[in-house]
């Protein structure tokens, strides 16, 4: 724990790169990752992202200089040229593709289904007649589209929904992946489990202004694939408690 604390301090100050020969790109980052709800794992995601950039830098021979920006200045900073790219949870909807170019997904934060520890429900279950708690209209629409036979219940607060699950009033709760990992590792350890992979492609990507720095998007995607293929990606997820 102490090692990771000091490593995080180093990462927060350091220039992220592999050497002076490669081109340097400035990458804007909001360390709070707003509007994502990460349940106290903001620093974990921050450190994971930094180390992933280091790996991509090493594979592709490019350098990254991080620029911390507040959430409300992140896309503005990109559009005004303060940085070449940003790490962002903006989803690649069609209208966003007209403004930005998106890398491949590097950290999935999409919703998963939490169930009781002894439940047999999984991603392949038909969910017929199962009562599933959701916390937003977006989650409701997504789950009904994937599992039209399920009965969806709306809850204003996640803790209320989780208590309903533990007490058997609902069969599952839809929660973002990273908060779900926090719940099953802490308050509900041994009581709840994650039954599905993320149900959509929401998460963090590298963004650039549309038709600018396409070479950076390509290099990032290549480096990300190499990091996955080498096994380092999974090790980083585990190291920063994001698996």
UniProtKB/TrEMBL annotation:
Q: Which residues cross the membrane?
A: none
Is Methyltransferase given among the entry's keywords? Answer: no
Matching entries from CDD domains are given as:
PBP2_peptides_like
Q: What InterPro entries does UniProt report for this protein, alphabetically?
A: Solute-binding_3/MltF_N (IPR001638)
* Organism this protein belongs to: Simkania negevensis (strain ATCC VR-1471 / DSM 27360 / Z)
Can you name this protein?
A: Amino acid ABC transporter, periplasmic amino acid-binding protein
Matching SUPFAM superfamilies, A to Z? Periplasmic binding protein-like II (SSF53850)
On the tree of life, the source organism's domain of life is Bacteria
Q: Which SMART domains match?
A: PBPb
Q: Please verify whether the record's keywords include Signal.
A: yes
User: Which keywords appear in this protein's UniProt record, sorted alphabetically?
Assistant: Signal
Q: Which residues form the Solute-binding protein family 3/N-terminal domain?
A: 24-243
